[in-house]
Amino acid sequence: MGTRKKFTPEELKHLRANPYTLRTTADSISYTLAFKEAFWALSLQDYTGTTAFRKLGYNTEVLGFERIKRIRREAKSPEGLGEGTRGGVRLTGGTGPTVPADEAARRMKREILVLQQQMAFLKKSRSCTTGRKSSHGQRQRAI
Fold it and tell me: In degrees, to the nearest 5, what angle opens at C-alpha 123 toward C-alphas 119 and 127?
């Protein structure tokens, strides 16, 4: 079964600061599609689950072995991470076979969801890299 470890308020704060975190509760964590794609890419490069999580900015001691093992197992499963392959969306181009209208609508809804998550990720990652305003009123990047 799953892990019984609950996140402390301090751990939740750190997890939510990571741009790859979609949402967290004391009991669980959900990852963005960008995380799932990056995790999959690192897995293909023979990174271990723990090493991939660290490379993507997570404290593996906070997450625990069971959560990391579960994501690794999902990545190796035929279904992949999330819906579709590796949490991604596959839409056929204009040259592909035609699909029924309800299937096309489902795919478009899924693409919208992916794009919304990518925008949220970019907004979150940008807020982490922007610093204070300069004397000219422009934002400086934190280095």
Answer: 170
Alpha helices in 1-143 (DSSP H): 9-17, 33-44, 49-55, 60-63, 65-76, 101-129
Give the three-state DSSP class for 30. strand
Q: What is the Cα–Cα distance from 82 to 139, expressed in whole angstroms? A: 36
CB atoms within 10 A of CB 52: 24
What's the whole-model pTM score? 0.55
Name which of 76, 74, 50 is nearest 63 in CA terms: 50
pLDDT digits (tens, 9 = 90+) for 88-113: 333 334 444 455 677 777 778 888 88
DSSP class of 45: T
Give the separation between CA 119 and CA 13, rounded to whole angstroms: 21
Burial (CB count within 10 angstroms: exposed 0-12, middle 13-18, buried 19+), residue 78: exposed
